[in-house]
Structure prediction request, 543 residues.
Amino acid sequence: MTPFVELDRVSLRYGGDGGTLALDQTSLSLEQGEFAAVVGPSGCGKSSLMKLVTGLLPPTQGNIIVAGREVGGPLKIVGMAFQNPTMLPWRTTLRNVMLPLEIVQPHRSRLRQERAAYEARAKDLLRTVGLNGFEQKHPWMLSGGMQQRANLCRSLIHEPELLMLDEPFGALDAFTREELWQVMQDLWIERKFTCILVTHDLREAAFLADTIFVMSARPGRIIATHRVDLPRPRSLDDTYRPEFVSLVHAIRDQISQVRSEARAAEAGAPPVAKVA
Amino acid sequence: MAISTRITRRQMEMAIPWIVTIGIFVVWELVVVIGNIQSFVLPSPSAIAQAFVQFRGPIMGHAMFTLVNTLSGFGLGIVFGLLLGVAIGSSRLVYNGLYPVLIGFNSIPKVAIAPILVLWLGIGQAPAIATAFLICFFPIAVNVATGLATVEPEIEDVLRSLGASKLDILMKIGLPRSMPYFFASLKVAITLAFVGAVISETIASNEGIGFLMLQASSQFRIPLMFAGVVVIAVMGVVTYVFFAAIERRMTGWATRGQQGTQFATGS
Prediction:
């Protein structure tokens, strides 16, 4: 089976030849319907990776293939959600969620005639994330966790083949975060979209993902890939099981090692052997 | 108890502009009467009112002329300012190219431009409208551009990854986002438009409040001059209140403030 998302030795340099190298020879591949997480120390180019895959930024070197085609510009099949929910304050929650339908074809041209059907669809989605009754509220009347739920709905309403999540739960309190992990898992099990989650929460990565890619400090490279073979649906209790805990520990060790190497390199110490 | 205090507070908020305004006139009147100030130095409010009643016909005629000029210039300023703001706000190149020119242009006192406009456009209505326009488009353009610049890059990425065009992003996000800035600038721009219209009427016109004041001054009718000043001030306040009301209606989401209900976290 050919991979759905494939990065082949992709490098990204900001600001011309002398600029910062954000990503260095990164390769990874994802099957269709796979849930991948990318973890790494801060500033390792995780968000750059997202922009590359969605075509928002062109790579300096290497090839990116999504859905069998080389990425040459912004993709149109993507849903995105960021740490900042970026709900539009002048729209109600329902109309915020329906925003992608006003952009993406074929919904865009159908929206006017089939408004009721689309609204029902958006309301259904809001219900699955526990936001029924809040459709007509403006986002600033909602708590941060509720806004993030609405944000997830907005990223999924047009049924994208690829969902990109950039630390979507990063700004939430621990309880809300874990609740949304489950919401996310349920949505994924139901719809089986391909998903790339960028996070620095290792438990989150291990809970949600099939595959975890560990990145090195800047310039970012994939230094390890972990399969998470825990059965689905996973529960929060699973996160306390020994195999889960030892997986999280293994990744944490790798990341703290690359962080200390990065610090040593910055301090001008002789280079240490890289982790394979 | 708590409710009744809140109501009195609200009533206080409603009444305070009137109290302050009337208070100023009362103090003014007292200063003139007690200080025995001659009316050609500083006329008392009652003398100004008298002059207004006596010349209300011509004053209202001139006021209408000024109002029409102001609103015409203001209308042009809105259209041009909006277009310019969108151009500056959505393209870095246009921004870099035009900003120095605009800043330079805006630094020129419009009193200095009015004679040039008279040279080009003759006297009367045309230069008054042009001056009002030139003085008021700038804050509109700058504010719209600022509003567009405050669009979060994340939401732009979300839309671009859906295949949205630049026009889509402008219509769905940029313009609504800049509406509060736009309406705030209208309140500034309308008062500036009055300034522009009156300046031009003072320099070259046979009509308008500016002309009226110049005439009254040359005939030493100081109360009449002040009546003209008060009429401009009143028109300025009324149009300001009008646009402030539109602003509240259109962009209530931006001034949500304290009355917005906060729902609990979680489900």
Notes: Chain A touches chain B at residues 51, 54-56, 74-76, 78-82, 84, 86, 88-90, 99-100, 102-105, 130, 134, 137-138, 140-146, 154-155, 158, 164, 173, 175-176, 179 (CB under 8 Å). Residues 261 and 272 of chain A are 7 Å apart (CA to CA). Confidence is low (pLDDT under 50) at residues 272-276 of chain A. Residues 242-266 of chain A form the longest helix (25 residues).
